[in-house]
Each structure stands twice: as structure tokens, then as C-alpha cells.
Amino acid sequence: MTTFLIILGLLIALIGVMGTLLPVLPGVVFSYLALIVLSLAKDWQAFSPAFLLVCAGALALVMVLDYVFPLLSAKKYGASKWGMWGCVAGSILGIFFIPPWGIIVGAFVGAFVGELISGKRGGKALRVGWGIFVGNLMSFGLKIIYAVTMLFFYVKALFQ
Asked: Quick one: pLDDT at residue 21?
């Protein structure tokens, strides 16, 4: 049973990393879940409760910042409500038409089109699209760092 749980945990950790690329999977949640599975496999000796709590706190922070970064970036670059709604619509459509990068590209295009609809002209609309693009990249970077870090701790704990 221990071997099964270790393999399952490793698969969950890898799905966590892939989930940061595919927005339909909660990658960071899977990454954290892998640590729990490994702890269960090793009779709760792999990680201390304090470590698991810190990782859970980091998970919560990453999940909040995943939404905050694009919004703050959009505000900083002067997005209107049309631009924000365009960003949301573009993200959703992008997932289906050009996965996995569609969420980022779609958000950019959606924000740009939304800003054009709101009456902004080319340069200003592009600036808002760029701001949302930057916010999404920051969010993506944070999620991939978290997922890879959890995978690192998982693999490290395997050999201790």
C-alpha cells in the first residue's frame, strides 16, 4: 500500500505541475495534495505539521493572488469595465480555442476588444491588453513556482 500511495502522490504532483499550464485543473491544489498523500504513505513522518500548514497558507495565498494579479495589473493600466469583462470572456474562449495558452492570449485579446468597445482607441486599448497580459504572466509564474517547489519537496522527502 505504501508503494501505491507514493506512486499516486508522485502522479498527483506531476498533474499539479501540468495543472498550472491547463486552467481546467487546479494545479496548485494537486501539488499540495501530493504532500498530504506522501505524508499518509510515510505515517505522517515525511513532513511536519508546521511545514504542511505553511504550505497550505502559501497555497491559499497563491490562489488569491491568481485572481488579484490580473485585476491589479488591469487597474494599473487603466482598464474599464468593458475591458475587464472582455478579459474574462477572452480567457474562457481562449481555453477552448487555443489551449493551454488560450487563457493568457484570450485575456489579452478580450481586454483589447472590450476597451475598443468602451471607446478607447488603439494605443490605449493595447496598453490595457498588455497590462492584463503581464498580470496573467505574473499569476502563471507564481503558480508554476509553487507547483515545482512542492514537487521538489515531494521528491526530497522520498529519499529521506
From this structure: 76
